[in-house]
UniProtKB/TrEMBL annotation:
Its cofactor is Zn(2+). The lineage of its organism: Eukaryota, Viridiplantae, Streptophyta, Embryophyta, Tracheophyta. Keywords: Hydrolase, Metal-binding, Zinc. Its EC number is 3.5.2.5. GO terms for molecular function: allantoinase activity; cobalt ion binding; zinc ion binding. Residues 96-490 form the Amidohydrolase-related domain. This is allantoinase. It catalyses: (S)-allantoin + H2O = allantoate + H(+). The gene is LOC108990626. One of its GO terms (cellular component) is cytoplasm. Signal peptide: none annotated. Belongs to the metallo-dependent hydrolases superfamily. Allantoinase family. Residues 41-95 form the Allantoinase composite domain. It is an enzyme of class 3 (hydrolase). GO terms for biological process: allantoin catabolic process; purine nucleobase catabolic process.
Length: 508
């Protein structure tokens, strides 16, 4: 009897199921397909033409065909038939068409301290600077991103509030380091890798790790083939930082701050790190894991240790930031705490050696380490370097800064693409990003290297607190004309697309 009833109900059940399917599918696809407010260009299929397109095979004159967010063909000028092909052509003339920048180290402070930066302002600034993907750091937001649950808060906070794509690093802290299921939960939830500090981070709910925590972290990451990023400064109790005398050393002098964090701190941290990166070698117990040293400042002994580890087959990379390449300690004016960061900006000889290492390929990638705060916490009036918040605000300017300060060293467009797109994409595991190549996301920055501008009050800065940026007041060259994220024109000459259509990037 019951059996008969089931048979009679079957058509009804099938109908119900198909409605459910249709409903789900429509919802799903409406989320996936960009709506018209995502882009300032009303085409799904079009060409971007220019005399200077930066591809992994070199700079070409020609056009890039984009269809539904992806690059579907790249045609050289001499093969002129793209002209006759269907589709709208946006001709940028002499402007440079480059892969969008990928910044693997940015603190957007959202949720919890969105008044320091926040997803909307941070990603608008990114788009205005030619950045198409950011990887957000797990600290300075509150709570810190150290668990599956807190990563979920990040993803929720990003929803419909990001103008470029954003991935997330999770935090490796003493609380989760020996708890592999907690770490796996965080990695399964989509963290692209983990980040830890070997010195106090300045954030209470993000305590520092020691080398045993780091070794444990690497062993879990090995299974996922994802990286561990480390802030490598290890406090040395000896001479230096205790050497400054309260009262006699003026806290408004940059040199006073410099003494508190000598290069020996970086060297000591890296010395410990390379004892565990041996495990990442082929056949080693943590093969598959990777260690990445963030924001290297010391270009002497610290760098030598990294080179040696690389030479031995350790899976290790290192980044530096535009501020270490642009500024030197001698130029920082008394009380100008906009320049305070850790590790500190060192002397000009150190800077020259950093450039050399970058040009020779010993430094792998560049990142902003955009780490803003409230202007009050920068103590600009006081100018006390010892008490001010450490962190440089730079996100919108990283391309013109690298380009402008790189002129002296003959930096090429291909090198910019390597340091800011190709290698960061590979390092963060972003398979469809980082190069203008067929099949990749159409993440593209259009900019004019020769156009100079003054970063003064008349310049439109999208960062929440422009006044704390160390670059305000400088003259730079390289203006962003337009930025495309997965084919959406998200930024064009001081205008953003009405809707925030960046997506969270989650590792699988
Ligand atoms: N809590 C921070 O954002 N710290 C940052 N501060 C800097 N770099 O001065 C960093 O990345 O270490
Ligand atoms: Zn750091
Ligand atoms: Zn940082």
């Amino acid at each position: 009897m019951e059996y008969m009833l089931l048979w009679r109900m079957l058509p009804l059940l099938t109908l119900g199921a198909s409605f459910l399917f249709l409903f789900y599918f429509q919802n799903y696809s409406s989320k996936q397909l960009p709506h018209k407010d995502c882009s300032l260009l009303p085409y799904q299929r079009y060409w971007i033409a220019s005399k200077r397109i930066v591809t992994p095979q070199g700079v070409i004159s020609g056009a890039v065909e984009i269809k539904e967010g992806k690059i579907v063909s790249i045609v050289k000028e001499e093969d002129r038939h793209w002209n006759s092909k269907e589709g709208h052509v946006v001709d940028y003339g002499e402007a440079v068409v480059m892969p969008g920048l990928i910044d693997v180290h940015a603190h957007l402070d959202d949720p919890g301290r969105a008044d320091w930066e926040g997803f909307p302002s941070g990603t608008k600034a990114a788009a205005a600077g030619g950045i198409t993907t950011l990887v957000d750091m797990p600290l300075n937001n509150f709570p810190s991103t150290v668990s599956q649950e807190t990563l979920k808060l990040k993803i929720e906070a990003a929803e419909e509030r990001i103008y470029v794509d954003v991935g997330f690093w999770g935090g490796l802290v003493p609380e989760n380091a020996f708890n592999s299921s907690a770490l796996e939960g965080l990695l399964n939830a989509g963290a692209l890798g983990l980040k830890s500090f070997m010195c106090p981070s300045g954030i209470n709910d993000f305590p520092m790790t020691n080398i045993s925590h780091i070794k444990e972290g690497l062993s879990v990451l090995a299974k996922y083939r994802r990286p561990l990023l480390v802030h490598a400064e290890l406090q040395q109790d000896s001479e230096s930082h205790l050497g400054i005398k309260e009262g006699s050393d003026d806290p408004r002098l940059y040199s006073t701050y410099l003494k508190t964090r000598p290069p020996s701190w970086e060297e000591a941290a890296i010395k410990e790190l390379v004892t565990v990166t041996k495990d990442t070698r082929n056949g080693g117990p943590a093969e598959g894991a990777h260690l990445h040293i963030v924001h290297l400042s010391d270009s002497s002994s610290s760098l030598d240790l990294i080179k040696e580890a690389k030479g031995g087959g350790d899976s290790i990379t290192v980044e530096t930031c535009p501020h270490y390449l642009a500024f030197s300690a001698e130029e920082i004016r008394d009380g100008d705490t906009r320049f305070k960061c850790s590790p500190p900006i060192r002397d000009s000889a150190n800077k020259e050696k950093l450039w050399e290492a970058l040009l020779e390929g010993h430094i792998d990638v560049l990142s902003s380490d955009h780490s803003p705060t409230l202007p009050e916490l920068k103590l600009l009036d006081d100018g006390n370097f010892l008490k001010a918040w450490g962190g440089i605000s730079s996100l919108q300017f990283i391309l013109p800064v690298t380009w402008s300060y790189g002129q002296k060293y003959g930096v090429t467009l291909e090198q910019l693409a390597l340091w800011w797109s190709e290698r960061p994409a590979k390092f963060a595991g972003l398979e469809l990003k980082g190069a203008i190549a067929v099949g990749n996301h159409a993440d593209i920055a259009i900019w004019e290297p020769e156009v100079e501008f003054d970063l003064n009050d008349g310049y439109t800065v999208y960062l929440k607190h422009p006044s704390i940026s160390a670059y305000m007041g400088s003259k730079l060259s390289g203006r962003t004309l337009a930025t495309f994220v997965r084919g959406n024109l998200v930024y064009k000459k001081e205008e953003h697309a009405p809707a925030a259509c960046g997506v969270p990037i989650l590792a699988r």
